[in-house]
Recover the amino acids of this structure.
């Protein structure tokens, strides 16, 4: 009759003892068993259970390392419960900040016609920026009663990374560019300022973020807002650009956004591509009127665009102006700031309202 195989626990006891002592003999002494018994059980463990054979040819294992007590070290990571609590608070704060900016409302305190000038990309430190036109428009906004401004972004070139070499191709230095930005952003007519791709290259530490503090709302890339005056409210979606493009239609991107969001805004306006377009449309099913626009900006001479074959003959639409009348609820958009300023001034003229006399 074949002998009964040894249980695994018996083999494990001898295997561990040999391993701990460093030799089979040492293990046998630890257990108080004959050397041959311990070696047999060790070999059985290796053969039947696939344990690693660590015995050297002379029957010795690697020498056993002495035991030690590790130091009691403080954890350099935050306690998990404290981390979870902190993240919860941070997320709640970010969510509240984001919600507050959804269709944020500006209120014009005087009930009278007013205009919103959507100032296209200035690129003020670029040699191709039409500075005299920009200065004329800035002066017009300052001097015309009822005009406010929304900056569409790309205030300065702010070349960053590999593009920093382009400072060598313009006559205005980086420092002078910031001086220009300080001059423009310091105007009191700003309601809202967007940051375009050039501005966002500067990240969270952008000087523009500090220049805007205290007198205007600043938003990365886009903002959805409404302007209230008297009993009327106009909804506006302004973005440095919307997704999508078409060589046939400069207003494709804002038009697509309007169609996909149920014409939820009275005006959808973009900039960024340095070309202009403006259109009024009315949905044939709902009757909802909305304007689509793209402001050209002031970088009217662009070597990069010329190299790509884009035309540069547009001489209007550098900024787009939306004139709003709280007495009729109408919004009328213009591609010419001077024309819009004249219309607004005419609309705001003192009027004597004579009640109709019954016949
Ligand atoms: Fe841009
Ligand atoms: Fe731009």
């Amino acid at each position: 009759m074949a002998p009964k195989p040894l249980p695994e626990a018996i083999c494990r006891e001898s295997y561990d003892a040999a391993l701990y002592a460093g030799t089979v003999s040492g293990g046998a002494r630890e257990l108080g068993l004959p050397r041959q018994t311990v070696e047999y059980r060790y070999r059985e463990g290796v053969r039947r259970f696939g344990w690693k054979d660590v015995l050297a040819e002379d029957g010795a294992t690697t020498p056993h390392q002495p035991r030690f007590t590790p130091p009691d070290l403080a954890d350099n990571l935050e306690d998990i419960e404290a981390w979870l609590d902190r993240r919860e608070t941070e997320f709640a704060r970010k969510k509240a900040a984001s919600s507050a900016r959804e269709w944020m409302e500006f209120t014009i305190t005087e009930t009278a016609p007013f205009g919103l000038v959507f100032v296209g990309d200035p690129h003020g430190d670029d040699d191709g920026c039409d500075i005299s036109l920009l200065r004329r428009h800035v002066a017009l906004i300052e001097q015309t009663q009822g005009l406010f401004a929304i900056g569409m972004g790309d205030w300065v070139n702010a070349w960053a990374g590999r593009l920093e070499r382009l400072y060598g191709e313009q006559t205005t230095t980086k420092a002078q560019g910031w001086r220009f930005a300080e001059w423009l952003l310091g105007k009191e007519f700003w309601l809202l300022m967007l940051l375009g791709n050039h501005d966002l290259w500067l990240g969270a530490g952008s000087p523009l973020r500090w220049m805007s503090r205290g007198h205007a709302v600043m938003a990365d890339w886009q903002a959805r807002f409404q302007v209230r005056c008297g009993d009327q409210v106009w909804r506006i979606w302004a973005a440095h650009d919307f997704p999508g493009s078409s060589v046939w239609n400069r207003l494709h991107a804002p038009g697509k956004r309007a169609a996909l969001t149920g014409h939820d805004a009275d005006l959808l306006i973009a900039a960024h591509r340095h070309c202009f377009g403006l259109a009024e449309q009315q949905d044939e099913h709902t009757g909802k009127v909305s304007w689509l626009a793209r402001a050209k900006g002031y970088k009217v001479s662009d070597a990069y665009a010329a190299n790509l074959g884009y035309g540069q003959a547009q001489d209007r639409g550098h900024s787009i102006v939306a004139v709003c009348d709280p007495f009729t609820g109408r919004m009328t958009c213009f591609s010419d700031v001077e024309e819009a300023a004249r219309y607004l001034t005419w609309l705001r003229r003192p009027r004597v309202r004579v009640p109709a006399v019954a016949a």
In short: DSSP finds eleven helices and twelve strands in the chain.
